[in-house]
Write a structure and sequence with these properties.
heterodimer; A: about 575 residues; alpha/beta; eight-stranded mixed sheet; globular; B: about 350 residues; alpha+beta; six-stranded antiparallel sheet; 8 helices; 14 strands
Chain lengths: ~575, ~350
């Protein structure tokens, strides 16, 4: 590791997670390692900024959901599945921003013991993944049916508090399921990847072999395009194109056909609107509460009058996939061909490329909504009786603090504990705002940048390839004209770059732009219908941008490490998605 | 109850099916071990018992004869066939070694159906056991050379193995299901290998006509995800296998034309078989082919019995059965190539 470069953590080292809150042992359900602020000793390891899932920082209440998800959920999943080399992911906070690291299994006995049980756990699930996933998805759906249909207003405070505890329990369970399934499917995918390399194919092609299955989100996009077309047909497009979303709905209502379109839009939200913009963030509204993201997407689609032909795009994507599979088969025979066919069949039945997109609807973007609803209802009651100032004050209390005071509300008022907590809320709000502003300037990685990362999941999902790490080590900040990354989707395009660092700026994207960003998630999917190419700092063969670009038939380069720092909005760039090269032409 | 004669070297001779679990494969063979496990876990499997491979090393011993007679009597009581018609059984080989298991399932070892009375049971157990040697010799020479794998039998009893090649075979005795319809369900398409499809092949009567390939059976293809029946092809079904009371034995005869013209399963039976088959495969951890029979004298679904199951390898193994390393095992690749676990 002689080439290693250390990015110091000093300025982020803290005792407290937020003003007035220090974690104590036992307040967190961790298996291998808790969420906590940086310490100096953390500098010996690498920590990747996870702006993919959490771009704007975490309020105190979201620390509990983060803990259940990427920390505890991942660690419990890795433990139960028995992933041999890793105990799962672990998180540190720089201010309010999430960094992710991994915990390696570092003794031979544990590796062997985990390997032995790994097969026992994984084999039956992969043997019948369809049944297995419908069981897990059914369990989650039953939970949503309960929480979504629950009218909170008639509940007394005690019942409401019970509902909030239920919502936390459900959230935690959803995240265990997330990582259980993720590790099993990733193993299947990476096994195919390894087989491909063994028989002389490029492993990175494997995700392309698995593309083309419809997901809940591709259906959402299609529905958004239909709503755009309906807006044109019903002549309500002007507010969608030109007004701020907050005003657009009122303006649409005033138009002759406005009510018709609104009814269709509301119908759409009932099915597709149970989603927030980021993962685990209880402070972000669902589309049903705040439909701006859907309205932005429809507005953007209206700017592309020809629309987007999903049918043709899907057919082309399937044809390209089948062609690639056929080409691969032509190079194989005998046992290798047989193994390839088996691995393909196994991965088509238990398809990580598909699940990686699909699961967001059931878990990442939805699991915290029941917590949010119950918290806001409780907050409204506490604000009404003067305990707190406004309902969302509760987002600035940590879960252990809230549990503590709610265990005996009368005593908490009498002892002044409530007052003590509410007194800290203004400072905590300021702290959150301070770090939100600092978000874009945070380094992509802290601690010691290694030559390689052993965890294959970090490589394929987060894109921590050797090339990515080298780009980080050697990035001197000087203007570069050529950036290399992972070739994620074929094609070459020249155009004007639009650099976007937060999901909140998605509406700035214009049709024809080349999108340059940290990484994309489900919320970004609609923009793939209007951009001409996509370039990301992070990501490997399995990341969202790679998968969605192939579906939409646009060139894509991911895992560049430095694209957002190197390219400026307005630059003329060329993206070569086959070679994985982005050239800045200026 | 394990019936062990009082000798200085205790050898388990006969084990009732209810006592058998997968860990007993070393003595009762893989087929009977899987059946015992299946029954223990609540799937309907006909009652019966197994004669261990080690016991069959000395097939003429009086102790073995006594143990079988006692087991058969217990079975008669359990199945209520005491004074209510004769107990008819199927006598089937159950190979201890993996290769023998493969040959056994493929029908290369004898199966005798509709056997009545302890004398015939004993006779057919001995015939079963004798059928082992020839097939074994052939398959071993073809695949591994003549000297390989001798003496793998009966590891469960603590016996180190005698080297007697015939000890590879145990024998199972199961009550014969008086089948209205029977056949096989595959939890993947045995032709394409598609795991998204289940396939049922079936005929009227006992499953023998389907398994032995004597008829073109009825065929159903079912979507593994939705459970919808995607395809049904009526088979020609010229013949069926039935127990002929006149002959006092199981025979294969021309199928009456009115039956041949009708599908031998109702849709709800197809779906039920697929659901159970998927559960069995999920538990087994790999695609399975499963023999089943639907009895004519009980209400649905109590009349659906599972007769044997094993990993489906005709597609996965292709022309080279017995060499799993030639296939794709995601766990093996993940451990060895991805996680790089030493020793994998």
């Amino acid at each position: 590791m002689d080439q290693a470069r250390v990015v110091p953590v000093d300025e982020f080292v803290r005792d407290e997670l937020y003003p007035g809150y220090k974690q104590e042992f036992g307040t967190q359900p961790f298996v291998a390692g808790p969420v906590r602020p940086f310490r100096k000793g953390d500098e010996k390891r690498y920590w990747l900024r996870d702006s993919l899932h959490f771009s704007e920082g975490m309020v105190p209440a979201s620390i509990a959901t983060l803990d259940d998800a990427q920390t505890w959920g991942a660690q419990l999943g890795a433990e139960i599945v028995g992933v041999p080399p890793t105990l799962g992911s672990v998180n540190r906070l720089a201010g309010t921003h999430v960094f992710i690291g991994t915990l390696d299994v570092d003794t031979e006995w544990q590796v062997q013991a985990r390997a032995a049980r790994f097969g026992q756990y994984v084999t039956p699930i992969l043997g019948d993944f369809g049944s297995y996933w419908s069981m897990r998805a059914g369990e989650l759906q039953a939970g949503y049916d309960h929480f979504d249909n629950l009218d909170l207003t008639p509940l007394d405070n005690n019942q409401l508090w019970g509902t909030l505890k239920d919502a936390y329990a459900f959230h935690r369970r959803a995240w265990f399921t997330h990582f259980e399934v993720m590790y099993v499917l990733t193993a299947n995918y990476l096994a195919f990847y390894a087989l491909a390399e063994e028989i002389g194919l490029e492993g990175s092609q494997v995700s392309a072999f698995l593309s083309g299955q419809q997901t809940f989100y591709s259906k959402t996009d299609e529905e958004l395009w239909k709503l755009a077309k309906r807006a044109r047909d019903l002549e309500v497009q002007a507010p969608l194109r030109h007004a701020e979303p907050v005003d657009a709905l009122a303006q649409i209502d005033a138009l002759p056909n406005g009510k018709t379109w609104r009814a269709e839009f509301d119908q759409f939200l009932r099915t597709y609107g149970q989603r927030t913009e980021e993962t685990c963030r209880v402070d972000t509204p669902s589309w049903i509460e705040e439909p701006s993201p859907a309205l932005y997407a429809i507005g953007a689609f209206l700017a592309k009058p020809a629309g987007f032909d999903f049918h043709t795009a899907r057919r082309r994507a399937s044809e390209e996939r089948d062609q690639r599979i056929d080409d691969a088969r032509k190079t194989l025979n005998g046992d290798n061909l047989q193994r390839f066919n088996e691995a393909l069949a196994s991965n088509q039945a238990a398809n990580f490329a598909w699940w990686n997109e699909e699961h967001n609807y059931l878990i990442d973007r939805r699991a915290a909504i029941p917590i949010r609803r119950a918290t806001l209802e409780l907050g409204a009651r506490l604000a009404a009786d003067g305990t707190i100032e406004q309902p969302d004050d509760l987002f600035f209390l940590f879960k252990p603090e809230l549990y503590d005071v709610m265990a005996d509300p009368a005593a908490s008022s009498a002892t002044g504990r409530w007052h003590e907590l509410t007194a800290m809320i203004p400072d905590r709000r300021a702290y959150f705002e301070h770090w939100r502003e600092r978000g874009p300037e945070l380094p992509p990685m802290l601690g010691t940048i290694p030559d390689t990362v052993p965890d294959p999941i970090m490589i394929e999902v987060f894109g921590l390839s050797g090339r990515f790490l080298e780009a980080l080590r050697t990035n001197t900040g000087n203007a570069k004209t050529e950036i290399r990354g992972f070739p994620a989707a074929r094609g070459t395009v020249e155009g004007i770059a639009r650099v976007i660092t937060t999901v909140a700026d998605l509406h700035k994207i214009e049709p024809g732009d080349i999108l340059v960003c940290g990484g994309t998630t489900t919320e970004w999917t609609p923009v793939f219908g209007i951009i001409t190419a996509c370039v990301c700092d992070t990501g490997g063969s399995l990341t969202h941008a790679a998968i969605v670009s192939r579906e939409y038939g646009i060139p894509c380069v991911v895992g560049t490490a430095i694209a957002t720092q190197t390219v400026k909005t307005g630059d003329r760039v060329r993206v070569d998605g086959r070679a994985g090269i982005v050239t800045v032409l200026r | 109850m394990r019936h062990t004669p009082a000798t200085s070297v205790p050898v388990t001779l006969v084990i009732d099916l209810d006592e058998i679990r997968s860990a007993d494969a070393g003595r009762v063979g893989a087929k009977m071990a899987r059946l015992g496990e299946l029954r223990a876990r609540g799937w309907r499997v006909p009652d019966g018992y197994a004669v261990t491979a080690r016991a069959l090393a000395d097939p003429d011993s009086p102790a073995l004869r006594d143990a079988i007679a006692q087991a058969h009597e217990r079975l008669r009581h359990r199945t209520g066939r005491v004074g209510h018609g004769a107990l008819k059984v199927a006598v089937r080989s159950s190979a201890v070694s993996e290769d023998g298991d493969r040959a056994s399932f493929a029908g290369q070892y004898e199966t005798y159906l509709g056997i009545v009375g302890i004398d015939d049971v004993l006779r057919y157990i001995r015939k079963c056991r004798a059928s082992g040697g020839a097939v074994r010799a052939l398959t071993y020479r073809e695949r591994f050379g003549a000297a390989s794998r001798a003496g793998t039998a009966d590891t469960g009893s603590g016996d180190t193995g005698s080297g007697d090649t015939t000890s590879d075979l145990a024998v199972g005795v199961l009550e014969l299901v008086d089948a209205r319809s029977a056949g096989v369900v595959f939890t993947l398409d045995p032709v394409s290998g598609d795991r998204g499809t289940l396939v049922i092949e079936a005929n009227w009567g006992l499953g023998e006509s389907v398994v032995s390939g004597q008829v073109t059976p009825d065929h159903w293809a079912v979507d593994a995800g939705t459970g919808e029946i995607r395809e049904h092809r009526a088979g020609a079904k010229e013949k069926w296998t039935v127990f002929s009371p006149a002959a006092g034995k199981v025979t294969t005869e021309p199928l009456p034309p009115d039956l041949a013209a009708r599908p031998c399963l109702a849709e709800h039976e197809v779906r039920y078989l697929c659901d159970r088959a998927r559960e069995i495969a999920a538990r087994a951890g790999s695609p399975q082919d499963i023999e089943w029979a639907i009895a004519r004298d009980a209400p649905f679904p109590e009349n659906v019995f599972f007769l044997q199951h094993r990993p489906e390898t005709s597609w996965a193994q292709g022309a080279a059965p017995g060499t799993p390393e030639k296939g794709f095992d995601p766990v093996q690749y993940a451990l060895r190539n991805v996680f790089k676990v030493p020793g994998t």
